[in-house]
Amino acid sequence: MSIAFHTEPTDIDTPRLLLRLWTPDDLDAVRTGVRQPSWAADFPADGDREIAEALAVRPEWLDRFGHRMVAERGSGLVVGSIGLFWPPADGVVELGYGIVPSRRGRGYATEATRALAEYACTAPQVHTVSASVELANPASVRVLEKAGFARVHTDGERAEFRMTRSRR
Q1: For the chain, which terminus, N or C, has the lower number of CB atoms within 10 Å?
Q2: End-to-end distance of the chain based on CA atoms, in angstroms?
Q3: 138-146 helix and 108-120 helix, angle to the nearest 10 degrees
Q4: Of 100, 79, 24, 87, which is closest to residue 55 (Cα–Cα)?
Q5: pLDDT value at position 25?
Q6: Which pTM was predicted?
Q7: Model confidence band, residue 167 (pLDDT cutoffs 50, 70, 90)
Q8: Whole-angstrom Cα distance, residue 33 to residue 166?
Q9: What is the per-residue DSSP string for 68-103?
Q10: Is 156 exposed, middle or buried (0-12, 13-18, 19+ CB in 10 A)?
Q11: What DSSP state is assigned to residue 44?
């Protein structure tokens, strides 16, 4: 997959998606419920609203290693969000994602997850990206497996996955 990383602002292009930083206007619109013409009909989902509230409290997550909106390159519509929970702890940063129901099953979550994990590993203080998912959500488990993450721990309800930067 060809992934392009830009300088300011830091957008990440994949073949079918644009992962772009949230703007203050995006944040306000999601938090106040004002629909935008650039959103898919079912955006924002509950998880996107939760992230918008978290971003209002943690503005540092709005920087280049923070959270992004996921937009389809073809339609330009925002179809989800993905982000890193910065800063890393001992070289490990957590990743979370969500794609709206109308766009699931197209591989968007896998494409976005792989791209953001690869981007995270360009930060000198990051060697591993982790994600934790509920085992009751097998689609999310498959996303991480297809994105190249390895399962490192499972308890009765959740599984932790990791992708580690290759040594150069």
Answers
A1: C
A2: 20
A3: 50
A4: 24
A5: 92
A6: 0.91
A7: low
A8: 42
A9: EEEEETTT--EEEEEEEEEEEETTEEEEEEEE-GGG
A10: exposed
A11: S
* Residue 67 per-residue DSSP state: E
CA-angle at 140, arms to 98 and 95, nearest 5°: 55
pLDDT in tens, 58-103: 888 888 888 999 999 999 999 999 999 988 999 999 999 999 999 9
Token match 């794609």: residue? 99
Q: How far is CA 55 from CA 22, 27, 80, in A?
A: 9, 8, 15
**Tokens matching residue 80:** 């989800």
Phi, psi of 154 (to 5 degrees): -140, 130
Contact 24, 77 (CB under 8 A): no
Q: Tokens representing 113? A: 């997850």
Instruction: Tell me the two tokens of residue 93.
Output: 């940063």
Residue 168 CA to residue 158 CA, distance in Å, equals 32
